Amino acid sequence: MPTAIAVTSADLALPPQDERTLPAVVLQDVDRRPLEQALTDLQSLVDQHGHVIVVCSQAAPAGVERRLHTIRSLLETDRIALFRPPLPPLGLAVLARQLRQLASCDLGPGVLASAGRLLTHYIHSGALLGSVARLDRVPVGLKSHAKSWMPGSQFGVVAHPEPQLVRITPGAALAGPEFGTWLLVAKGQLPSDWVTGTLAPSWSVLGLRETPLPAESPGWWGTGRLTEFCAYLPDLSVLYQLVTSVRQSRCHWCGIDVIGDRCVFCSATPPVHDARPDGRPGVRGGTRMLTG
After folding, report:
1. 41 Cβ contact partners less than 8 Å away, ≥ 6 residues apart
2. Helix, strand, or coil here: 250?
3. pLDDT tens by residue, 105-157
4. Where are the alpha helices (DSSP H) in 19-61?
5. 49, 25 in Cβ contact below 8 A?
6. pTM of the model
7. Cβ-based neighbour number of residue 253 at 10 Å
8. Whole-angstrom distance, CA of residue 285 vs CA of residue 269
């Protein structure tokens, strides 16, 4: 069975992008259900799929992360990866769907989990906000903070990959991706006209889709008066090419193939090579972060 891609709420499980996109496993209310039940569910997933990648929002309640770490520790397994990238909720949902697309390919679980960190760099996530008074995810200057209290003020914000903030005025613009993307728009309590009519053409998007606003978005952005957006790569062939073009290595701790400098499953980093007195390379040993 393919590696399971799990999310911590149903609204992070976006509809399939194509016929190969695998369904997401929804760990609904994982912090509220009895621990024994949650343990049984995760163990069943590991038994069925071999490995599980849990994509969790940084806006999720603290109890969700604690419960996931507790389960992982009690199961004493390196087959559950907990992945919490610095993306807004809509961007996180897009990334989870991209991993669901790639899960149908011939990628090992370590490479697939590592792909999450790689693909994060190609996601442009932002929002149109009616106020930045409570926004703490992006630097907000005093002038913008003061103007956010003016009636009718709106702000265009990009949180990832590089923070940007502009007050919406004629000619206001946000720097976007330099490659072809689709735009996903999630309407909140603010009209999306600027996003669909101004931002989308300026970013030269190839297409536009709409989806409901994730429940965690108002908390992440500090206001319910928003429309969230995310530019992303939709094609499985492009995603697969990006991932397979990166050199793979074997994790020295748990033995699975990975890309990048850290195993997402066991959190081990590569051993450091030193020169021995005879001039031959030596190994100081890698490190492993205890995540449970």
Report:
1. 27
2. strand
3. 999 999 999 999 999 999 999 999 998 988 888 877 655 544 555 557 899 99
4. 35-49
5. no
6. 0.88
7. 18
8. 9
